[in-house]
Amino acid sequence: MIKEYLKLEKVEGPLIMVSDVDNVSYGERVKITIEGTETRHGKVIKIEDKLVVIQVFEGTTGISIHNSAIQFMGKPLEISLSADLLGRVFNGIGEPIDGGYPIHTTNKQNINGRPINPVARKYPKNFIQTGVSSIDALMTLIRGQKLPIFSGNGMAHNELAVQIVNQAKIKGANSENFAVVFGAMGVRHDDAAYFKKSFESSGVLDHVIMYLNLADDPIVERISTPRTALTAAEYLAFEKNMHVLVILTDITSYAEALREISSIRGEVPSRKGYPGYLYSDLATLYERAGMLEDREGSITLIPILTMPNDDITHPIPDLTGFITEGQIVLSRELNQKNIYPPIAILPSLSRLMKDGIGEGFTREDHADLSNQLFSAYSHVQDIRSLAQIIGEDDLSDIDKKYLQFGKVFEEKFISQGKTENRSITETLDLGWKIISILPKTELDRIKPDMLERFYINNEEEG
Hints:
CATH topology of the largest domain: Rossmann fold
Protein name: V-type ATP synthase subunit B
Structural class: alpha/beta
CATH architecture of the largest domain: 3-Layer(aba) Sandwich
Distance between the termini: 86 Å
CATH class of the largest domain: Alpha Beta
Number of domains: 3
Radius of gyration: 25 Å
Number of strands: 21
Number of helices: 13
Strand content: 15-25%
């Protein structure tokens, strides 16, 4: 028999406290009945002796210490899992918000899944083609990788996320065994509508599962949203053997919800007011992505976060960078030049790239070309700084060649249309065409045999 508690100790923000409680567990689901008619839900987030703190998903408006009945359900927050999830839209705790039917299944799983045991992991190696040249050539996404996008307010991270979802191709995957799980936290209504409309118009919505927590939805639900999305991804990947791409946006909204709840709970704050456990909390999300030795499926994770004041040393991008395997950084400067996608090449990297490119994956010249493009573009920044001091006219001929390379590289290679889908062959061929603006003597990162095979002599062509 489930016991009811008819008097609350305290109501504060989205939290309620109940005293003299026995036999409850951390994370246990709670049913709250207000004045015998309205029902809300919550979960246990703190236990101190017999005092229990509960987060209320729908907020505590209308709840007083005398008008509510509390029932502890004896199980954690769970979501229903089946193949019928594909093509559906849910809120942050897995309830349908698209007007469709509820998911009826006996398969229900706790959203608080565990990070993958490192011993059980399979090393990621297979290349994912996004169709975006700067990503595919220079910070290659690998199946099973965690590769975040570091952006800023007003930049084109939403458009880039949609483009990756629409264009992503995994070797060995097709429409039958490829799915996208999209989790949005604290997004505006127009952004949510943009995501849904984009997936519908491109015809990919039938293999996308969307979990949406809007800006005016409860912040408590925001904390559950990424866990709900990852639980669905784990089901598709490790029970249905599908290749799953997970997009989570915006991790900054998630971290700010954590900070707000932490402050209400009276916890001692750490850097910039965020809770001291922010690192371990983010790790419990990110480390659920990957591949298992005894499973065919995979989870590739692209979390998106907006850096406050474009500060890459802020705690959220800083800690994310420690946990994940690289980052794609968006540039305010390129964004102001109307270059899309405004990817800052030099601070971006993919730590797993070296094992997923080259012969058998992309093409044998990929690694050498990538190293040379990085090196040359880095030198361009030095020459641009020098030109601001002495003027372009006083630069040497070779320095002027580098400036020409840098301009063409940004306008033709980094920049591309929002629906332009370049194959890896097209991307590498374009890279060779642009790097060939420089004389062979400057290309010291490329093996001589590769240089002879792929270098384009522009003088002979012209």
